[in-house]
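Sequence of 16S rRNA (Guanine(966)-N(2))-methyltransferase RsmD (Amnibacterium flavum).
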Amino acid sequence: MRIISGFAGSLTLRVPRSGTRPTSDRTREGVFSSLDSRGASDGARVLDLYAGSGALGLEAVSRGATSAVLVDRASDAVAVCRQNAALVLRAAPKGDAPQVTVENRTAISFLERSRAFFDLVFIDPPYDIAETELTRLLELLVPRLAPDADIVLERSTRSPEPTWPAGIEVLRQRPYGETLVHFATTAAD
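Predicted 3D structure, token representation.
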């Protein structure tokens, strides 16, 4: 697992011992190729839900995001996120370091309490997440989205289509092996 591009490009990241399914380098390359064409990382406030190693949020930081919040409920994942964030921030240009925060809580409890707005959101839940939980999470996410926010949701190719709430517009889907990536944005009023 490594940072692919940006100021921390090629930096090797740690991965939690168990309980996570890290996004492959190939999938991250494809996701960020799509996001870079929209300038999604530039100056973005990033939210990485079910962060695992924090690779998605930290990749965005390396590519120009100004801040990232990495959220995971597993203590091992939280410890790894903190270590990986410290590595990435050490590589940041002096005087221009982004802010990275790690939250040890469930994605839903974070969204229930947060008052922040985000420009770029990564959601990579366990493939066996209950559809009702995913639907609730997406509903709670809508008020936390900045105008023209980008949302990237990773699911199994065998998972049912998520129930998208009003306020989120799906742009496209792209398969990467067993993973199906949904690209969405804030819906126009």
